[in-house]
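[step 3/7] inverse_fold.run input=structure_tokens len=490
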């Protein structure tokens, strides 16, 4: 079809109202920025709310249970991206799924701000987890749909969009941490709710600028099948509620359960793809190549996501937070990584562009990211044994810089690799598998953190650091074999 007879595409190409991009990008930029503001703002103070004593405004639960809850919550966010994608593809379309997900996120933060005790935590975290998963899955999809495949503005548009993510991640913990420190935890949660409300208002006002993009599900679920899926969803809710009320699911084992469910789901996904008659021999080889990458990704995220478990506890109890005579809130540490990402993301992108075909292969990038994460945990050891609030801020900032380098080596590459290795018949499922590795690692971050003891840190940092390095070294050794299985994909 000629380019001249597609009015909708021509209109999108001529729309340059937002830094040379379609003006609808401003709307998606805004809702994602405010969602990340609320998400990281809430997560920055969540663990302290759980284990601080009642006299400090917290719930006073055991530290190990608190890290388990945070890990399970984080894992559920990434698990629910799969559900959000399914709802968009089969029921509502990406645009409406994003809109309703944003409402759910806002309601979750309101629940945390208003309802006291663990009931408020339960209701709030469930709403935020499923809402964030649905929004995360569909915002990126809608950004891609703003451009046709030949529009040279696509990469720049995504760069602007991801800048919104990092602005929200930077500012959120700073403001909610200040509100929690000055007023109380519920004020911090309320600020997260206000941020999501602002994002929702601006998105609602600008929805028409999407001009029907993502309005319809691409693979609608037949009406006759809808009652079956409604029944399955209702049954799942009843089972989870019953297991919680009978004490099978507890705060202490929550992250372990999410780890188990994610492993089962991942094995199921791999088994379905590898046994399918709809994939070719070349595609099957590429799926096999993704298995060691999946494992390395899960290991990487199990360390990286400890920013919200072990590192959060460390920032509270071991870090010297005195800044010119004032102790800043421990949640402010969560803003260090976004600053480094904003500074170095462009540097890494420029380096890969300059190196071109000479850049390291994807398995080597994965191996390097996993090894650097292990080194970051070993870097805690020289600061160990100094007692409460003795670790220097510059030391932790240096460790988080290593976190950033590892993230930039693995995270952007992983999502791209999952699309390149995906069989044609399972394109979306392969992307879902990458998110399952993130879900598994995030839940593991809660499980591992239960073994951290601020009074005896060296064994923990040694075991976790060396374990990650070992996985990275094995991946590097196996890189030539993996590259052969990738059948031409770099």
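[step 3/7] decode complete -> sequence:
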């Amino acid at each position: 079809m000629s380019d001249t007879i597609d009015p909708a595409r021509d209109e999108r190409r001529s729309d340059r109202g937002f830094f040379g991009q379609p003006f609808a990008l401003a709307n998606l930029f805004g809702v994602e920025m405010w969602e990340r503001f609320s998400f990281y703002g809430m997560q920055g103070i969540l663990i302290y709310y759980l284990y601080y004593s009642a006299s400090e405004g917290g719930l006073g639960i055991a530290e190990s249970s608190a890290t388990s809850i945070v890990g399970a919550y984080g894992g559920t966010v990434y698990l629910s991206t799969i559900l959000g994608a399914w709802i968009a593809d089969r029921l509502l379309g990406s645009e409406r799924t994003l809109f309703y997900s944003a409402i759910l996120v806002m309601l979750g933060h309101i629940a945390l701000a208003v309802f006291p005790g663990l009931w408020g935590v339960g209701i709030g975290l469930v709403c935020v987890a499923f809402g964030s998963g649905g929004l995360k899955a569909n915002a990126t999809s809608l950004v891609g749909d703003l451009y046709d495949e030949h529009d040279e503005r696509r990469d720049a548009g995504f760069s602007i969009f991801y800048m919104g993510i990092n602005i929200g991640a930077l500012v959120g913990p700073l403001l909610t941490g200040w509100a929690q420190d000055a007023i109380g935890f519920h004020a911090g949660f309320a600020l997260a709710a206000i941020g999501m409300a602002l994002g929702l208002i601006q998105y609602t006002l600008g929805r028409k600028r999407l001009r029907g993009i993502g309005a319809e599900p691409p693979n609608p679920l037949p009406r006759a099948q809808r009652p079956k899926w409604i029944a399955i969803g209702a049954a799942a809710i009843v089972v989870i509620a019953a297991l919680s009320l009978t004490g099978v699911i507890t705060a202490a084992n929550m992250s372990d359960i999410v780890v188990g469910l994610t492993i089962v789901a991942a094995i199921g996904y791999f088994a379905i793809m590898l046994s399918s008659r709809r994939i070719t021999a070349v595609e099957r080889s590429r799926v096999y190549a993704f298995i060691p990458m999946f494992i390395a990704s899960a290991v990487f995220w199990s360390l990286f996501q400890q920013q919200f478990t072990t590192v959060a506890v460390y920032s509270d109890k071991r870090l010297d937070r005195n800044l010119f005579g004032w102790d800043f809130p421990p949640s402010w540490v969560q803003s260090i990584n976004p600053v480094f990402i904003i500074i170095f993301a462009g540097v890494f992108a420029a380096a890969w562009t300059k190196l071109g075909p000479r850049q390291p292969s994807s398995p080597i990038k994965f191996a390097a990211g996993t090894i650097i994460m292990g080194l970051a945990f070993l870097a805690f050891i020289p600061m160990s044994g100094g007692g409460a609030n003795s670790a220097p801020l510059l030391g932790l900032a240096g460790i988080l810089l290593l976190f950033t380098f590892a993230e930039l080596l693995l995270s952007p590459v992983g999502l791209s690799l999952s699309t390149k290795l995906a069989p044609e018949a399972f394109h979306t499922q392969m992307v879902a598998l990458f998110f399952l590795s993130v879900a598994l690692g995030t839940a593991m971050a809660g499980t591992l953190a239960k073994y951290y003891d601020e009074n005896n840190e060296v064994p923990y940092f040694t075991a976790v650091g060396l374990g990650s390095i070992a996985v990275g070294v094995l991946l590097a050794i196996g890189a030539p074999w993996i590259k052969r299985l990738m059948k031409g994909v770099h």
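[step 4/7] annotate
The chain has a mean pLDDT of 88.
DSSP finds 17 helices and two strands in the chain.
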